[in-house]
C-alpha cells in the first residue's frame, strides 16, 4: 500500500498553458510599449480587466440602465434585480451573508465608513445597541507598522476625534508582525484592532486566525484590510472570524469606483450610519429620520450599479479559474521574483526571504539608484512596475528607505515576464554607473 505524503500530492496551480489562454481575455496585454512587449507587473496597484467584465458594464447600460430601489417600471426592476444579484454573488465569493455586503467606492471609503460610524456612536445620543462602538478618552485603537495609509489615517483621525489612543504592532527585521508585541498590546482597553491580511510592500501573509484569537480574548473588534488577499488567495471571512473586512474591485479584475465592506450582520445593524440621504431611510419628517437595516443603511444616494455588476462578473471569473490555482501560480511567481532578485548584487529585497510564504510580489531597493530611476529604466523596456512608498511611509521609514520598486503579479503573468524583468533589473546598476556599490 502506498501512503500519500504532502510532497506526493498534486500541485494546485495554474499551468503555463492555462495562463497563456487566460491572457487572451485581456486585450490590453497584447501591445508594445517603447518597442517592447508590455510586461504588466503592477497588479498590486490595479489589475487589468477581462473582456467579460468590460462587456458586463456595457451590457448594463445598453439593456438595463435605470436607478435601483426607486422605480416600479420594468427597467428599474431589471436594474435592481441585477444589482442585488451581484451582491449575492460577491457575498458567496467571500463566504458572507448577502446582507453583510455593503457597496462602497473603494476600500478606503469602507475603512472611513467604519471609522466615522464609530465616531458617530461616540457623540450625542445614539441607540443603545450602538454604544458598543463608542470610544472614550483612554480607549485604545491598534494597527500595525505595515499598514497601507488607508488603514492607518482613518484610525488616527478617529483617535483625534474621540480622545482614544492609537498604538501599533511593530514588524520584525524579517518583515513579519511581532506576535509577542501584538499579544502584549491587546488589552481590555483595546476597542478596535485593524490589520492587513497581506502587505502590499512586503508580500507578508499575516496569521489572521492568531490575530483574531488575540483580539477576541480582550473583546476587541477586528477590521481586516483584505485588498491584497481577496484578489489573490481563497478568502472565507466567516472561517477567518473577522468582524469586518474591506477590499477594492479594481485590484481584482473589476472597474474602479467599487469596493466592499463586509461586516457581521448583527454589527452592521447596530452601527449608526455614516452618509445619510435618500435610499437608506424608512421614514422622514422635518425633525428626524429612521434608517433601514444593513446593507441599505450604509448606501445613501445613487449607487455604483454597473460597477457592482461588473465586480460580480470579475468574482465569477476568478472562481471559475480557481482561486487555489491562482494562489498557487502566484506563489511560484513570487518565489521566482525573490530568488532572482536576491541573487543580484546590490539588490535588497523587502519582506520574507526566499522559501517563506509571500504573495506574488516583491519590493526591492537598488543600492545607489533611486526607485523612480529604476522604474523609468524598466518602463523604457516595456516593463510596468510601481515605484515610491506605496502608500506605506511608516513601513518604509522602519526599513530605512524613502521609496522602493515593486513588481507584482497576477493570474495573467508568465514566468517569461518575470525572467525578463529580472534580466532588466540586473542591468540597472551598470547603466547608472554604480556597479561597485554594495
From TrEMBL:
Coiled-coil intervals in this record?
A: none
Q: What is its EC number?
A: 2.8.1.7
Domain Aminotransferase class V span(s) in chain numbering: 40-421
Requisite cofactors: pyridoxal 5'-phosphate
Gene3D superfamilies in alphabetical order: Aspartate Aminotransferase, domain 1 (3.90.1150.10), Type I PLP-dependent aspartate aminotransferase-like (Major domain) (3.40.640.10)
Q: Which Pfam families match?
A: Aminotran_5
PROSITE patterns recorded: AA_TRANSFER_CLASS_5
Q: Which UniProt keywords apply?
A: Lyase, Pyridoxal phosphate, Transferase
Q: Name one GO molecular function term.
A: selenocysteine lyase activity
Q: Which reaction does it catalyse?
A: (sulfur carrier)-H + L-cysteine = (sulfur carrier)-SH + L-alanine
Please state which protein family the record places this protein in. Answer: Belongs to the class-V pyridoxal-phosphate-dependent aminotransferase family. Csd subfamily.
Its biological purpose is as follows: Catalyzes the removal of elemental sulfur and selenium atoms from L-cysteine, L-cystine, L-selenocysteine, and L-selenocystine to produce L-alanine.
Q: Which PANTHER family match?
A: CYSTEINE DESULFURASE, CYSTEINE DESULFURASE 1, CHLOROPLASTIC
Name recorded for this polypeptide:
Cysteine desulfurase
This chain's source organism reads Arthrobacter russicus
Amino acid at each position: 500500500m502506498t501512503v500519500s505524503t504532502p510532497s506526493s500530492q498534486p500541485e494546485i496551480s495554474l499551468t503555463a498553458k492555462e495562463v497563456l489562454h487566460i491572457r487572451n481575455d485581456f486585450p490590453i496585454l497584447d501591445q508594445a510599449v517603447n518597442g517592447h512587449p508590455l510586461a504588466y507587473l503592477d497588479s498590486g496597484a490595479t489589475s487589468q480587466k477581462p473582456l467579460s467584465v468590460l462587456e458586463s458594464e456595457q451590457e448594463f447600460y445598453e439593456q438595463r440602465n435605470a436607478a435601483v430601489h426607486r422605480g416600479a417600471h420594468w427597467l428599474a426592476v431589471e436594474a435592481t434585480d441585477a444589482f442585488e444579484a451581484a451582491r449575492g454573488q460577491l457575498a458567496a465569493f467571500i463566504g458572507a451573508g448577502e446582507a453583510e455586503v455593503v457597496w462602497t467606492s473603494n476600500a478606503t471609503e469602507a475603512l472611513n465608513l467604519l471609522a466615522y460610524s464609530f465616531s458617530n456612536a461616540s457623540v450625542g445620543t445614539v441607540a443603545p445597541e450602538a454604544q458598543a462602538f463608542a470610544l472614550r478618552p483612554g480607549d485604545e485603537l491598534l494597527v500595525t507598522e505595515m499598514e497601507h495609509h488607508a488603514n492607518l489615517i482613518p484610525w488616527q483621525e478617529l483617535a483625534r476625534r474621540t480622545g482614544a489612543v492609537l498604538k501599533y504592532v511593530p514588524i520584525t527585521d524579517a518583515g513579519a508582525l511581532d506576535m509577542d508585541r501584538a499579544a502584549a498590546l491587546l488589552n481590555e482597553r483595546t476597542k478596535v484592532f485593524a490589520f492587513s491580511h497581506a502587505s502590499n510592500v512586503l508580500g507578508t501573509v499575516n496569521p489572521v486566525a492568531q490575530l483574531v484569537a488575540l483580539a477576541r480574548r480582550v473583546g476587541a473588534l477586528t477590521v481586516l484590510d483584505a485588498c491584497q488577499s481577496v484578489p489573490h488567495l481563497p478568502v472565507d471571512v466567516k472561517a477567518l472570524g473577522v468582524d469586518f473586512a474591506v477590499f477594492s474591485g479594481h485590484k481584482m479584475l473589476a472597474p474602479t469606483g467599487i469596493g466592499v465592506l463586509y461586516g457581521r450582520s448583527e454589527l452592521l445593524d447596530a452601527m449608526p450610519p455614516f452618509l445619510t440621504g435618500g435610499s437608506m431611510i424608512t421614514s422622514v419628517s422635518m425633525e428626524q429620520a429612521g434608517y433601514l437595516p444593513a446593507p441599505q443603511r450604509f448606501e445613501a444616494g445613487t449607487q455604483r450599479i454597473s460597477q457592482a455588476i461588473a465586480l460580480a462578473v470579475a468574482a465569477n471569473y476568478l472562481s471559475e479559474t480557481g482561486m487555489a490555482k491562482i494562489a498557487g501560480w502566484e506563489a511560484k511567481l513570487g518565489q521566482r521574483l525573490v530568488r532572482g532578485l536576491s541573487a543580484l548584487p546590490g539588490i535588497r529585497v523587502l519582506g520574507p526571504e526566499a522559501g517563506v510564504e509571500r504573495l506574488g510580489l516583491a519590493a526591492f531597493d537598488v543600492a545607489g539608484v533611486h526607485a523612480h530611476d529604476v522604474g523609468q529604466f524598466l518602463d523604457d523596456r516595456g516593463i510596468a512596475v510601481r515605484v515610491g512608498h506605496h502608500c506605506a511611509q511608516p513601513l518604509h521609514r522602519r526599513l530605512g528607505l524613502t521609496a522602493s520598486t515593486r513588481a507584482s503579479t497576477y493570474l495573467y503573468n508568465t514566468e517569461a515576464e518575470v525572467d525578463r524583468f529580472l534580466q532588466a533589473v540586473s542591468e540597472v546598476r551598470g547603466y547608472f554607473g554604480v556597479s561597485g556599490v554594495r
